[in-house]
Design goal:
By secondary structure, the chain is of the alpha/beta class. It has one domain: Spore Coat Polysaccharide Biosynthesis Protein SpsA, Chain A (Alpha-Beta Complex), CATH 3.90.550.10. The chain is about 30% helix and about 20% strand. The strands form 2 sheets. The protein has a 6-stranded mixed β-sheet with strand order 3-2-1-4-8-5, with helices on both faces. A two-stranded antiparallel sheet has the order 6-7. A hairpin with a 4-residue loop joins strand 6 and strand 7. The N and C termini lie far apart (about 40 Å).
């Protein structure tokens, strides 16, 4: 059985004109990975196809912004989808842990991760604000309810994400 056939989480990366950062970040993502090219003019799609043939590349044809991620979610063959930016990646083991939490909590649709920034790995202020959400923790859920989330640090239940309509333009 291959890593992809066992996977519960697909990583979706949306990028535009970011060959250099993708060269550094794509090797860090566990597979499967779908790259949605947001209308690049620097050869991003071709570069990824050549150097990362195991990454599925989808060319949006234009800069769709955040909704480009919806294309990747629709193509994902796993129950969960993690989002990453072209210059970000998930810590080793984080996506297995996220899938375990989502498996254990069927009502949970979005899991917001603790996002660390820079080489010194300082906590992202938005990530801390979500942790301290005034909405509190509902019975039966593993953490606080939030009003929004950082896309680059979220794992979603694919079915719920699609039912909600994904990212709105």
């Amino acid at each position: 059985m291959t890593e992809t056939s066992r996977a519960r989480v697909t990583v979706v990366v949306a990028a535009r004109d970011r060959v250099r950062t993708l060269a550094r970040s794509l090797p860090r993502h566990p597979r499967p990975v779908i790259l949605v090219d947001n209308g690049s003019s620097d050869g991003t799609a071709g570069f990824v196809r050549k150097h990362f043939p195991d990454v599925q590349v989808v060319e949006a044809g234009a800069n769709l912004g955040a909704p480009a991620r919806n294309l990747g979610v629709r193509l994902a063959g796993t129950p969960y989808v993690a989002f990453a930016d072209d210059d970000s990646w998930w810590a080793p083991g984080a996506l297995d842990r996220a899938a375990d939490v989502l498996d254990a909590h069927p009502r949970l649709a979005v899991l917001g991760a603790r996002v660390l920034v820079g080489p010194e790995e300082r906590p992202d202020p938005v990530s801390e604000a979500m942790r301290d959400s005034p909405l509190g923790v509902e019975d039966g859920l593993p953490g606080p309810s939030v009003l929004s989330f950082l896309a680059r640090g979220a794992v979603v239940r694919r079915e719920a994400f699609l039912e909600a309509g994904g990212f709105d333009d």
